[in-house]
Task: structure prediction
Amino acid sequence: MPFKSINDIIVKQDFFSPGHGLCAGCGAAQIARIVMKVVGKDSIIINSTGCLEVSTTTYPWTAWKVPYIHVAFENAAAVASGIRSAYDALIMKKKLNKDVNVVVLAGDGGTADIGLQALSGAFERGDRITYICYDNEAYMNTGIQRSGATPYGAWTTTSPSGQRTFKKDLMGIAIAHRVKYAATASIAYLLDAANKVEKAISMNGPSFIHWLQPCTIGWRFDPKLTVKLSRLAVKTGLWPLYEYYDGAVKLTVQVPKRAPVLEYLKLQGRFRHIINNKNELVKIQSYADELAAKFGLGPVSE
Result:
């Protein structure tokens, strides 16, 4: 059943504890908490190397209240596929009478780049797993290096003058594999996000959620702005909230009037070097306009 209100989510039991070392304002902590409230205790979490892993599993403590497996950058989807196959075999042989949700949490580096091959294989095989990419748009855990998901113009330690290409279309890649369900999510729209997680785990096949995750360190912003930035990404059209199901794409959050991309960019130090560069701003605005036209978002408000 879909969640009708935020309170429906809040009252759910927490399976991700507050005892972790993630940064103040870190979007990953908020994502993990919402995901765990939705998927519940009958779940296995596969987490590739990254900020979420190193900050929630400091031996001998863990923030996870369900079975949790840390794996390498490149093989999260493959490990999830193996777990899914093992459980299916045990259930078929009647050695288990209860199913579990097999859920991957991985960053953009482990999804768009290093782990893309394993993810493609899992999607192609039709494995019944839910893969959630928390996208902070760079390799934040290892020093803020650019990834395939780094947006155009963004500063990183390996693109000090600004990223020169636009980010990979991970949703397009997932949809091209004919996954059962794919969706984008934002922590600024928790009801929308929670219902998408609920749908994803109910699918009889692979599902994918691409979740924007503002990073206070790599994006260089005040921690109190995490939710505001998440909302502005949607309001500008840079992060349309939509889902793909049964061969159709549906916009899930309407944006009748969009904010100019400058409103989003100016709050982040990673774009400081282009804030006064009209040509660069026009390129990013044009990219947002293309996305808006594709998904039926409104015009930019004057």
Strands lie at 43-48, 68-71, 101-107, 130-135, 181-185, 207-212, 242-245, 248-251. The chain has one domain: 6-295. The domain at 6-295 is CATH 3.40.50.970 (Rossmann fold). The two ends are 40 Å apart (CA to CA).
